[in-house]
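Need tokens for this chain, all 657 residues.
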Amino acid sequence: MDYKQEIERLRRELEQAGYEYYVLDTPTMSDRDYDLKLRRLEELEQAHKELITPESPTQRVGGKPVSAFGAVEHPVALESLQDVFDFDELRQFDQRVRAVTGDVTYVVEPKVDGLSVALEYVHGRFVRGATRGDGRVGEDVTENLRTIRSIPLHIPNAPARLIVRGEVFMPKKVFHALNEQRERRGEALFANPRNAAAGSLRQLDPKVAAERRLDILIFNVQLAEGEHFIDHIQTLDYLKTKGYKVIPHYSCTCIEQVVECITSIGEGREDFSFDIDGAVVKVDDLAQRTQLGSTAKFPRWAAAYKYPPEEKPSRLLDIVVQVGRTGVLTPKAVLSPVRLAGTTVTNATLHNQDFISEKDIRIGDTVMVRKAGEIIPEILSVVMEQRPEGTKPYHLPDACPVCGAPVSRDEDGAHMRCTGAECPAQLLRNLAHFASRDAMDIEGLGIAVVEALVGAQLVKSPADLYFLEPQSVAALERMGKKSAENLIAAIETSKQNDLGRLLYAFGIRQVGQKAARNIARHFGTLEKVANATVDELMAVDDIGAITADNLRGWFDSEQSKHLIRRLADAGVNMSAQEQGSDRRFAGMTFVLTGALERFTRDEASALIEERGGKASGSVSKKTTYVVAGENAGSKLKRANELGVPVLTEEEFEQMLH
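Here are the structure tokens for all 657 residues:
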């Protein structure tokens, strides 16, 4: 078969498979077949780059990062809707509509809690996508929208120009999985799916957006040259025929049917894959919409009903403390079952000790509960007049309920945190960090392998990595003999790492890579670091009182001492490498700015320090050189103002050799 024909055939098959999977939710092609066909298409396109098009399924992984989003003026305004908060207001809306139109049919849709966007097509090809912005001007997020698999990149029998409007959202399952991943990595959690979706869609690097697995529901035709529609439902049917994933919708012939429909959507909200914050009511007939027109702010033919947050009393039966993967102790209320927002609630978050103390929440209290943002159950207040006699103020434990290690309060917040180096609750996160590239750099030990090792109970501490048997690793799912041998070899190699890497791998709070390197060079051996006083630790460059206290507390822990003993038994290096003879950067201070292509910031900083120099984060008169990558910003400007020499990445690399 001609390679052009094969490319076209593969694209058609993959597009159809993607439509069935992401839009219809009825896949007919297996994941394996899809992956094999996609790989074959990638091979053909790499061999014939001139045939790559923006619509190809291979282009959905994300293109090059952008420095900023351009402005897009919407040809048809993306109007917002007037909110109504009870059914009486909704009936008044109906009366205003009927006063102008007479008989009317409404369409009711769930109001997706996401980010509104417009998608523009020219002769069937997706050419541009923009956020709503202020309704008239939004931001160009085309490359990030291309990564959303349910958006067709080209549509059949299309008008010369078509603009549709939809709501980008993060599915609930994806949101929970993303937050679990971020927790393992010690990253800040997203508050809710809407914030996660908005943050993902506005990533400057489309590859990050692609990893977030966003979705979209289309709910309006903004512009369709040459097409004529009578009513809204006809436009939604039209959008379905073009391959879009269309918003669920219901037709109602009177306002009481609308009320029933809104009630039904609210009671069944948990069945949706996306979060909702209300229901949208629209006049179906497009001619009647024209009759009604718009105010300066809203269309008169639509309204957004916002579900009232339900508040109900419940009995606080107990408070249990969970330990997260970053060691944070989170108190959780155990409640008598209460029905809220369509679901039965038996637990609610209590956030932290400050939250409990401020509201004086005690076991046995009757508390008022609601769903915050219709998602997370929370306690609003205590019904003091129903407080039983003999209740006592609640305080979080001083020791970790999982491992028994001491608990410390974060110096920069209200969280209490387990200090145990071998705490089982933190095991996944600790192992992933220990093996990461900037720590012990154990190639092949990603989070999936870490989870497999922990699941098989082969590893209960970072030290256990150095006692793994190849045959046990090979027996893991998707591992095999060769992969196991490679992993064991990478673990063995990591024993020779410098002390600075090991210190960073321990994950001690506020001890980053640079601080770990400075400490290693200052003391020379782990034994000396472990025995150093707070004052001696503070004598190290960039180590303040809080970091010194964190270090002292970590080394005083029995779990830390046990971990160090086992690492020593395994033969892990615990000494700093001798200072190299290359001191060409001695007395020099470098500042790195912009996006570097040949090094990461940490790699470049390490290379500078290995040659006796210092890597700083701010430009001053004492700065020797500024190394400027792409999209360098204020630091480059400051360097030019002060007359500090500026190096390109190529010039910096030449200085290294």
